[in-house]
Sequence to fold (639 residues):
Amino acid sequence: MNDLKNDSRSDGLAQNTDTQADLNAGINAEQLTTKARHPAADALGMFLKNRAATVALFFLVLIIITGIVGPMVYKTDPFDMVWAPFSPPGAEGFLLGTDYLGRDILAGILYGTRVSLLVGLSAALMTVFIGVSIGAMAGFFRGWVEEALMRLTEFFQVLPTLLFSMVIVALFGPTLPIITIAIGAVSWPAVARITRSEFLRIRELEYVTASRASGSKNAKLMFKVILPNALPPIIVQAALMVGSAILFEAGLSFLGLTDPNIVSWGQIIGSNRPYILDASYTVTFPGLAIFFTVLCLSLVGDGLNDALNPKLRQR
Amino acid sequence: MNLISTVAQRVLWAAILLLAVLVLNFSMMHLAPGDVADTIAQSMGGADAEVLEQIRTDYGLDQPFLSQLSNYVGKVLHFDLGYSYFYNQPVTKLIFEKLPATLILVITAQLLALIIGVLLGVYSARNQEGWVSHFVTLFALFGYSAPVFWTGILLLIAFSLKIPLFPVAGMVDVTVEGGAIAKFLDLLRHMVLPVITLASIFIALYSRLCRATMMEVLQTDYIRTAKSKGLSTREIIYKHALKNSLSPVITLAGLQFSAVVSGAVLVETVFSWPGLGTLALQSIIARDTPTILGILFFSALVVIVGNLLTDLALRFVDPRVRGH
Fold:
């Protein structure tokens, strides 16, 4: 019975590329040893069925590696004026050309990868942490707690996010931690809403009632009983949050509200904007870097959605 | 009756929200490092200790925080947002000069995004394997992933620098002569690129959501009933399914107002659009506290009014909301 299921699964995956087939073999091996489909393996299988997501994940890993290794291998300082300004891509050995001050754009993009990923990831973590805490309490306790917390959420939703974080960054100093906090402080309401609605749904389910009846304390109910089952949409949202945090950081640094001693993608675009008539590539390439990274993140988010949302699986 | 009391409740809550926005922003400004008197002195070209002291007394900066706060809130209740020491103008005047430009941009982009988003969403839900459907999928991804300022710059390079179809910057061309119609056409010409840039993100969001909800609605029992009654697809979609798939889209649009305003800040910068965003950036860099507070207040007001209107629209479209 179980073997039959495995076979049909491998058939479905057989059309996929080599790397996927390798991973697929991994799943099958795991399934054979455990003699049952582990939910994680099941989810991985669903994720791999989404080809776009799998390719995006591959590129995302590549981008992360580039961010870590790139600046070590390509040693040109992004702030150094290495050649004449506005050298077009390819000329004089500068693959992506030089900017208005004659700085190497490729070096800027490589160093900027680190900044974008770092800020994106930490801001998303912060967003998820605040959002899940508030949403979980609101959905679990109901009553006045929910009322108060959802009013707070609504309050943060009417603050024009970018303007508010621009002010935070300008007032408290354009450092990476402040930028991260500024992004996290305005982005959490979406996560709080999703968490709350999941908690509202799940807390009425029978297994929660059963656990409550058997004497589970609130903390256990919240974090051990409800939260694990509320996680799928939160994880999907978190993946998307990394993308929107990267866009957010790019927007801030495009406006010049960024650490002047750190290169970032948005900042390259912002500082070269006056010269787009002479050298449009100075904004095209850093923009492509942002676009491609966020695109990969949203495709991976889609894949996670396929993998973790059981409703869609029945289709 | 019910409607009036709900609206009254909503308006009251909106007023409380605005008050909270004021208090939060004012406190944040107060907490920030740096001396406001110093900034004022700098905008006057520097000052010695005595003049600094004078500035503190003049602007009430020597008073305790709470009295400064209540002073400010009291003034705002009388529609006085203070005096900008960077522009040497009352903040209300500054903002009212710039607000219309931002409103035009925000409202047009939001409406355009809703209309195109819903049309694309409905069409692609009907023809799930058609090229429009694939286009929506792609466009939704691209629109979401491309930074809005970058999209704007690319459009600017393509359609005003390489192919000079649209103006490079600004909102009106002062050299345009003629009557109101000529001026209006000129405004439209200036609006095309900024509005498309700003709307693109939201077209992506709305079309994707609309398609998803439409596909879900089309699988429900009452649609099956409608089909078995022999209604045409057109009737099913526009009379029955659309109403139910519209309300999530409108809810989302309401939630996006603050994002639209944020996007407008970036788009205004790219196209030198003379709106609140441009003013905000200048005053933030100049640390012009009264203007910053005024802009934060007004942009929150725009979002809140947008939310209120969305609520009303939702009640209009979806009778289920009225019951609550």
Remarks:
- Chain A touches chain B at residues 154-155, 157-164, 166-168, 170-173, 243, 247, 250-251, 254-257, 266, 269-270, 273, 276-277, 280, 283-284, 287, 290-292, 294-295, 297-299 (CB under 8 Å).
